[in-house]
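seq as requested:
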Amino acid sequence: MQEQNRSAGNTLLLFTVLMFTLPIITFFLARDGLSLHYNYATFFSVLVVNIIIAVYVYLAFNEEEEETEEERRMKSGKMSAENQPKVGIFKDVGKTD
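struct tokens:
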């Protein structure tokens, strides 16, 4: 498995576990530990779910993108703009017959 895929899988697994455990723990702590009514305990559980989702989305948007193979070749000079294959409407540009 590639390193980037492993990292994404670990992040997904972590947030899946958090989504399963933290709202339940929050509900029972708020209801029994703080002696709050069910409505308030439910509110705090939903709040925790929204926080977990917001953090996951934040991490997903700020994740660094991996360079593609083509971008690496362009940087290394193996494939510059001059020696790229011409395709489409540019196929015949510069041809002399």
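Residues 3-33 form the longest helix (31 residues).
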